[in-house]
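pinned: reference chain
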Amino acid sequence: MFLDKIIGIFSNDIAIDLGTANTIVMVKGKGVVINEPSVVAVQKDGRGGSKILAVGQDAKDMVGKTPGSIIAIRPMKDGVIADFEMTERMIRYFIEKVHNRSAFIRPRVVIGVPYGVTQVERKAIKESAMSAGAREVFLVEEPMAAAIGAGLPVKEPKGSLVVDIGGGTTEIGVVSLGGLVISKSIRLAGDKMDMAIIDYVKRKYNLLIGERVAEDIKVSIGNAILPEERLSMFVNGRDQVSGFLSTIEFTGEDAREALKDVLKDMLEALKDVLEVTPPDLAGDIVENGIALTGGGALLKGIDKYFSDAIRLPVYIADEPLLAVAKGTGRVLEEIDLLQQIAYD
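pinned: its structure tokens
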């Protein structure tokens, strides 16, 4: 106990948005210190062992470009742990990076998790963080963290609605009086958008492209509504008929067509939440609008797409990519909020 107190004095407590696509780490009193892809590059040694070559951006740069002995792993899938060992090693890397590789430091850690993850998944996330060097681990549901990070009045007796579109999951939550009144998590988000673009390019142009190219398309010309200006980019891939390398011009209209089914499913999930929202809270949402957070909020025209469909004001929060991380960071700063909403 005495040793824990001494260690606590020297540690910087940290908040982690452990995302499917990116991991963002905030340190108490310092803000965001790490914002890197959730990717680990591993080299197999032929005897069943492995050595980590890179974590984060360096590892992502290797995706799709590695020789047979090196594999780039995304240990998080659909917002939960798909590879326990690699998640632990990734968290350990980020914790040690924050603390200048000191194994002696054992911080308190707050981690954002998707709404509705099972007890088994919660246990896996906590054990990964503990094994990676955390002293204590608290879990905060992402819709609540996103609402806090978006600056919504979560402690007040009024309804706020947030839609957090991440890499693996889209989290929708109605928040009031420091709690989630209604929430829904669907495993449909940025990754599914990438796959939809891959499938569309394959179906329409007989061209095979990888996830990195699909993500570039989504970020550069992806859109939810028909853009006023003509958008296009040249895309390289392999023709699945001839087998030769080929280049096509991919337009904004193509991108909108590719993404329409994914966006429609997100819209249906949002409608499901609105349909069961209590009338008094619904009135607050009509007045204050719906906040969009997460990387998916940056898709061109997505706020207008939702707003036109549900006839409510929809806006993109400030720094939407950082909303969950900022929310978990604020929970770390405010002990009463931590006690109120976190699972320890």
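why pinned: Residues 2-38+74-144+324-341 form a domain with the Nucleotidyltransferase; domain 5 fold (CATH 3.30.420.40). The longest strand covers residues 179-186.
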